[in-house]
């Protein structure tokens, strides 16, 4: 089909509908749905009457698609930005400053695989870290010793972690962040074992368990804006 001098690929589906619908697929072609009895001439006429809208929309969809196709230059791992490089391998391979990935992965697919890789690493690394931080906190605040918190991991959109009863959940997203910020979130949730709200008692305890918490909170906020852009991920803002 020609529109404003450009040949535009399209798919035509006939069905028992009453009017013509025009959809623009992400790859930049038209999907037309037409009633069985609508003639090609009528379809062409309707398309022509919407040529301006279609051209604009096509351009927008193609630009979006290209942005997604473009490779992300880097990926954050424990607070370090590793360069992404496509390689002749079957799985991710991480070195000191590079994260190599199989050639055939690209676009949105690559992001999802990176995110899953991130979550899997978090599941490997965080239980131990949690245990260590908890023991450290117990050595400062003896009242914590009577707790035996259950530790969980989840990918969360809005929050870094939470503490419900004696169950502490941490966002796997944190694997992208520097270890001291992960420790900060863990300490914060551990404080909630004793103090459920963010009252005076809570802050007094947090001050003892993680004296640098103000800086950490600020760093987490700043970094999350940067990382959300890089890794197309959510930007949690609640601890
Ligand atoms: Zn909190």
Can you tell me about this structure?
The chain is α/β, with parallel strands linked by helices. The protein has 2 domains: 2-69, no CATH class; 107-231, Metalloproteases ("zincins"), catalytic domain (Zincin-like, 2-Layer Sandwich), CATH 3.30.2010. Helix content is 45%, strand content 22%. It contains 6 helices and 12 strands. The chain has helices spanning 40-49, 51-69, 107-140, 179-194, 200-209, 213-231, and strands at 2-3, 6-7, 10-15, 21-24, 30-35, 74-77, 80-87, 93-94, 98-102, 150-154, 161-164, 167-171. A hairpin with a 5-residue loop joins β4 and β5. α3 (107-140) packs across α4 (179-194) and α4 (179-194) crosses α5 (200-209). It is elongated and about 80 Å long. The relative contact order is 0.10. The mean pLDDT is 91. Zinc ion binds at residues 188, 192, 198, 239.
Helical percentage: 40-55%
The CATH architecture of the largest domain can be given as: 2-Layer Sandwich
Give the biggest sheet: 4 strands, mixed
Our Rg estimate from Cα atoms comes to: 26 Å
Could you say which overall geometry the principal axes of the C-alpha atoms support? elongated
Mean pLDDT: 91
Domain count, please report it. 2
Termini, distance in Å? 54 Å
- CATH topology of the largest domain: the name is Zincin-like
CATH homology-level superfamily of the largest domain: Metalloproteases ("zincins"), catalytic domain
Number of helices: 6
Q: How many strands?
A: 12
Low-confidence stretches: none
* N-to-C order of helices and strands: EEEEEHHEEEEHEEEHHH
Strand content: 15-25%
Bound molecule types: zinc ion
CATH class of the largest domain: Alpha Beta
Placed side by side, the strands forming the largest sheet appear as 6-7-9-8
Q: Structural class, from secondary structure content?
A: alpha/beta
